[in-house]
Amino acid sequence: MTLHVESSGSGPDLVLLHGWAMHGGIFAPLTPLLAAHFRVHVVDLPGHGRSAGCTESIETRACAAAIAARVPRALWVGWSYGGLVSLQAALTQEPAVRGIVEIAASPRFVSAPDWAHGVPAEVFVQFAAGLADDYRETIERFLALETLGSDRAQQELRELRAHVFDRGEPALAVLEQGLEQLRSTDLRARLTALAVPSLWIAGRRDRLVPAAALRWAAAHSPNARFLQVASGHAPFLGHAAEVAEAIVAFAAGIDA
Asked: For position 122, what pLDDT does the model report?
């Protein structure tokens, strides 16, 4: 089975990539706004949603290659884990990528002695252990972490809980592999090699990926912009219009 990709709208091509344990349907508030300006290709990552039977790897580099083979050359927009995939695409699949938009995504998700803008490694260890014990409860805990700090936290959490399993349950092995990718990936040193323009959109109240991580990434990437939205980890839920406008303006700058 191949990757599931839903396409809508017309205009320049744009690829939309969701986060860990989710699926492309989570972009429902954002997709129609983008489809008014772009031909939007919403991807369900391997093992997620309607790509549950896809045998492609969720490992970010392999995943980027699989998507690049499936869609036209495009602007890649990735949220959270999807941001890691789009960043890898820009670094390793450059002919397929016009530019990247990183929404609440970091070049390194886990904190380190030289990186204060991440989540403690033990959090990922706890989530990995929890998946085997109580699959659904662990995902719900992660959803709660994603909405923590948002001015619409309860409403966003309700939305995420209501739709997380709309397209079926992600494969346990894929979730475990994804967590390991989040824990181990560090692309900070590669940012200077970015050959395409980038836009880094942060949630000011994001408790999972601090805005400072995206500000740092933008400052260390050539031809990069930074935008902060008054939201938590999922800016496109409560601030879809603002996020869409920023993406449209960024794309226009690429074409200018």
From this structure: 83
